[in-house]
Amino acid sequence: MAGRAATGSRRVAGSAVTDPSRIRNVVLVGPSGAGKTTLVEALLAHTGVVGRAGTIADGSTVCDHDPASVRQQRSVSLAVAPLTHDGLRINLVDTPGFGDFVGELRAGLRAADAALFVVPANAGATGGIDPVTVGQWAECGQVGMPRAVVVARCDHQRADIEATTAACQDAFGAGVAPLYLPLLDGNTLVGLYGLLSQTPADRAPAHAEEARAALVEGIIEQSEDETLMERYLGGEDVDQATLVDDLETAVARGGFHPVIPVCASSGIGLDALLEVLAGGFPSPLERTLPAVTGIDGSPRPPLTADPDGPLAAEVVHTSADAYVGRVSLVRVFSGTLRPDTAVHVSGHHVTVPEQRNGDGLPEGHDEDERIAHVYSPLGAELTDVDACVAGDLCALTKLAGAETGDTVSDSADPLLLSCWDLPEPLLPIAVAPANRGAEDALVKALSRVVAADPALRLERNPETRQTVLWTMGEAHADVVLSRLRAAGADVVTEDVRVPLRATLRGAARVTGRHVKQSGGHGQYAVCHVEFEPLPRGSGFEFVSKVVGGSVPTQYVPSVERGIRAQLERGMDDDHHPVVDVRAVLVDGKAHSVDSSDAAFQTAGALALREAAAACGTVLLEPLDEIAVTLPDEHLGTVLGDLSSRRGRVLGTDAGEGLAAGRTVVRAEVPRTELLRYAIDLRAMTSGAATFTRTFARYEPAPT
Fold first, then answer.
1. Preceding amide of 535 cis, omega within 30
2. 14 pLDDT higher than 50
């Protein structure tokens, strides 16, 4: 941790890099349990950053330092682990593989310039590559991010490296090819055969020549030398140096994706992987950087990874440390961050709906801060450095106003980077203080936890009087609750209540009469009102048809205000607001002394209550329109489930913009039936389906 020297078993990579061309930022992507964190640990031990590789079982890995990660024995947050190889600083960004923590993955993609997909070696024998990983591969492809594949956990008892490599080629598509073939002793990986170097020559597998030919053709197809393929097909022998150069260019451009088997426990394949990370993946100088504007939205020139350029950095992760408080992990896109520097922190949004502006758009936030120290992070350990240049990652502490996704720039020239996309959190949990004395602690903890987690949305619902946290799933919710408690909140959960409405069942003409005389100044107001229900979504309409001044003009608005107030309060014990009603004031009576604004407001409210008693009310529930994107093989299951939730299918679409074999189902479903849909849909489709949700309208609830 910051303020504590690194232990003897760890050599923290804290020396500052001054040249962006000497930096590689690599995010590890793959399913939970694929071996990403174990691979990072092996690379750190192999390059001397740590004296001995930690293990997930005993909670001693560099990247899984979060208490929730140790407890669940899987990554739940992003972590950075830098190492040095061949004079390069390689920042490894470890991300969770479980779908609930996709916000951490998106942050990792933002921080990195290339992606290393990690798949377990038993995938080829157990159904192939999971659909979520295939979707993440396509997502990286859409933004042109260079990718390579590691076949990990090669010591698994059901490991089948070649079958898994074939599964990767089938799932990920063109440009995926092995650089090495496994050398096996029975089912044990004992070495690798290099297809380009053709070594060790005395142990070439039987199909090595065929595999090498396919690899060479794949590399040459990506070559910038348009004559090379013709010469190769004409029988010319292409030298290894040319192939390596073209391979590195093709990988950096995102056109070719090498596959490398790696066994973390034995170290086989680690050197081969480091060669790809250093030689194949691009430096920050080769990346297209996020768009930038002034904080007022004014246009600014595109950024470049220039240490002398304008300062533009982004908070990609926020955590809390028991010793130093808030820790902000930052990617510097342009300029240089130095200690003892004044900076400006700009944010895109707040997470509390009632703080949104009148147009319904998110408010931004802007604050000036001062950086005391700049740190190089190694998991939770922080080491002082004298600068962090464009293209590098660093950690800053005690930026009280900084949230994940915020821009850090020069206080004299504040900037705002474009934000990254995040899926909508769709699993609600209602939280409350365990007792009255715990309210303040919960408010503070919520502010701290929500600021750190871009995938978490806070809603304070005035109708249900609940504080609702929208999460990505059960595992995410569990982590959020544990972080609230770690932040000092005594918090409990309760069932999420869905805000209902009511409307009149029919039309009625009624009298609202408020007459009181108890000596002195009295109260007198009588109004005759015709009420009728309106079509859904119409709201409230008030019309006055009073003639002859039976209700004085100044008191007509009072009747309307009284009705509106009663509509908002509702007329049942649960105080459900009444909507979609027309009220026509047709007559009334007033007293020259005892009538008042308050009296006619009360009369208006009483008239509405009389109408509800006369014709009854109908309870309305909210309907949401959902769009479920899913593989075709799950279509029948999902349609049947929607029917069981009282859903009405609007249609299916397998058209343009969808990957082959995927369909979008659109349906209207009562919101009460969707409270756990995020969990149930994942279970039904093995995590292969996603859905979005928008409010449609209110309809009568079943009686």
1. no
2. no
Report CA Rg, the chain.
32
Element (H, E) at 690: strand 690-700
> Using an 8 Å Cβ cutoff, are 492 and 435 in contact?
no
Q: Tell me the C-alpha distance between 291 and 300, whole Å.
A: 9
Q: Would you place residue 8 in the very low, low, confident or very high pLDDT band (cuts 50, 70, 90)? A: very low
Going by the DSSP 8-state scheme, the letter that residue 50 receives in this structure is B
- Residue 38 burial (10 A CB sphere; 0-12, 13-18, 19+): buried
Question: What pLDDT sits at residue 352?
Answer: 35
- Name the phi and psi angles at 624, rounded to 5: -110, 145
- 3-state SS record for 468-481: EEEECCHHHHHHHH
**End-to-end distance of the chain based on CA atoms, in angstroms?**
59
Between helix 131-142 and helix 161-172 the angle, nearest 10°, is 50
Distance, CA of 196 to CA of 78 (rounded, Å): 35
What Cα–Cα distance (Å) separates residue 462 from each residue in 40, 569, 675?
46, 12, 18
Tell me the pLDDT tens digit for each residue of 363-382: 567 899 999 999 999 999 99
Strands 501-504 and 617-631: antiparallel
Helical (H) or strand (E) element with 631: strand 617-631
* Burial of residue 442, with CB atoms counted within 10 A of its CB: 0-12 exposed, 13-18 middle, 19 or more buried: buried
How many residues are present in the chain?
703
d(CA 612, CA 436): 37
Q: What is the C-alpha separation between 12 and 24, in angstroms, rounded?
A: 17
Q: Which residue from 486, 607, 489 is spatially nearest to 66, judged by alpha carbons? A: 486
- Residue 633 vs residues 362, 479, 663: alpha-carbon distances, Å: 39, 32, 10
* CA distances to 27, 109, 121, 502 from 118, in Å: 10, 15, 9, 53
Q: Are the beta carbons of 153 and 122 closer than 8 angstroms?
A: yes
* Mean pLDDT rounded to a whole number for the chain: 90
φ, ψ of residue 252 to 5 degrees: the values are: -65, -30
DSSP secondary structure of 76-120: -S-EEEEEEETTEEEEEEE---SGGGHHHHHHHHHH-SEEEEEEE
pTM of the model: 0.86
Give 114-158 pLDDT, tens digit per residue. Answer: 999 999 999 998 888 988 898 899 889 888 899 999 999 999 999
CB 149 within 8 A of CB 111: no
Identify the three-state secondary structure at position 603: helix
Strands 427-433 and 407-410: unpaired
Q: How far apart are CA 219 and CA 227, in angstroms?
A: 13
Query: Which pLDDT score is estimated for 519?
Result: 66
Distance CA(97)–CA(681), nearest Å, equals 18
Count of CB atoms within 10 A of residue 649's CB?
15
| Exposed / middle / buried, residue 518 (Cβ in 10 Å: 0-12, 13-18, 19+) | exposed
- Asked if 150 and 165 touch (Cβ cutoff 8 Å), the reply is no
Please give the single-letter amino acid code of residue 53: A
Please compute, for residue 218, the number of CA atoms within 13 A of its CA located in the half-sphere on the CB side.
25
Closest CA to 558 of 513, 525, 511: 525
Residue 369 contacts residue 402 (beta carbons within 8 Å): yes
Instruction: Count Cβ atoms within 10 A of the Cβ of residue 107 and give its class: 0-12 exposed, 13-18 middle, 19 or more buried.
Output: buried
Closest CA to 327 of 435, 492, 448, 501: 448
pLDDT, mean of residues 104-111: 94
Query: CA 305, 307, 313: angle at the middle one, nearest 5?
Result: 65
591 in helix, strand or coil? coil
Question: What is the DSSP code (8-state) at residue 506?
Answer: S
Q: What is the pLDDT of residues 339-372, one digit of tens each?
A: 999 999 998 643 333 333 333 334 567 899 999 9
